[in-house]
Amino acid sequence: MKRKTIRRLWHGLASLRDYEVKRLIDNNESVCLKCGEEEMVLTPEDLLKGFDSTKKQHTSIYNVGQKYKLVDFRWKPTKQMELGL
To answer: What is the CATH number of the domain that holds 15?
Structure first.
């Protein structure tokens, strides 16, 4: 399972880049998103249900010339007991 830290939510939505979501789905991997003290697990089936909040294409400041769109997921933190912590 991949782990990713989200710095902030936007109107209750967690955003991932489209190429990250595609890579996770292609590899049949889940991802654990962390925002503050809360965590949320997205399975490959959940990743398929993500939606584009905008049609705007962004340009990466880290990978020159790479363009991406954001895929949003409603933030539903997993309870600590479900994570086995």
So the answer is: 2.40.240
